[in-house]
Specification:
The protein is of the alpha/beta class. Helices cover about 35% and strands about 15% of the residues.
Length: about 250
């Protein structure tokens, strides 16, 4: 395992957060009007310019783009609070990797909760417009849920009210805590991993000197580099392939 860690960045603001659950993108929720707009899919960066092509389906405040790599921008503090829970983050990630969706029982196996508790979390996510019922598999007794899209970006906005900023911070901190737990889990079991996986696992940090335009180009380059390997669209991976978590951040220092 390679750990290449420099100094830890310190930031004076909460950056926007874009989470790519292993491959599909989430639409965008506007805080006041609850109307969705299409957001350009990108690696983590501050939201601001909102672009897209065409309109999608309305999901009670969510719009799913018809095609392409588009995501959901969340600026509504109520939606942020609904998502700021480790179980719901895990459910969202799991459903985002499954175009056909999953039942509460199937999600419960991933989350480590009972089916009834998982059903509660799914209903709360549905109220927030993040998941929706999926087509039946033929068994009317089963209720299938799917994510309305596969990635979501959080940005309350530079001029957001304190309530929205607090909700944004809570959600991002929940997400960061989950990513830290994954790193700790790897460290606990690293010595038991096969040599080929131990050798390629990496923790990396580096300080760069770039302009804002160069950082935007770097973000786009990283996104393009990861694209062929995303879990949802790589339906026929080679033998020996495993799910791998890649946690990318690019934060200006003081």
């Amino acid at each position: 395992m390679i750990a290449d860690v420099g100094s830890v960045p310190q930031v004076d603001h909460v950056p926007s957060l874009l989470v790519e659950a292993p491959v599909r993108d989430l639409g965008q929720v506007d805080g006041d009007s609850q109307r969705a707009r299409l957001a350009e899919h990108a690696s983590p960066r501050r939201a601001g310019r909102v672009t897209g092509r065409g309109a999608g389906r309305d999901h009670g405040g969510m719009t799913e783009p018809p095609t392409g790599r588009r995501g959901v921008r969340i600026s509504d503090p109520q939606v942020m609070r609904a998502l700021a829970h480790p179980a719901r983050l895990t459910i969202m990630e799991h459903l985002s990797a499954l175009p056909e969706g999953a039942t509460a029982t199937e999600c419960a196996e991933v989350v480590g909760l009972s089916p009834s508790a998982t059903s509660y979390h799914l209903r709360e996510l549905a109220k927030a417009g993040l998941v929706e019922p999926a087509p039946s598999r033929g068994d009317a007794r089963e209720r299938i849920w799917r994510a309305v899209s596969s990635s979501w970006e959080v940005d309350a906005g530079r001029d957001a009210e304190p309530d929205a900023l607090a909700a944004q911070t809570a959600l991002i901190e929940a997400w960061l805590a989950r990513e830290l737990d994954r790193s700790r889990d790897w460290l606990r079991r690293a010595s038991t991993e096969p040599p080929q996986w131990y050798d390629v696992a990496r923790l990396f940090d580096s300080q760069l000197v770039v302009t804002a335009e160069e950082l935007a180009e770097l973000n786009d380059a990283v996104d393009r580099l990861l694209e062929p390997y995303r879990k949802r669209t790589r339906t026929d991976p080679p033998p020996g392939a495993r799910s791998v978590s890649v946690h990318y951040k690019a934060l200006p220092l003081e």
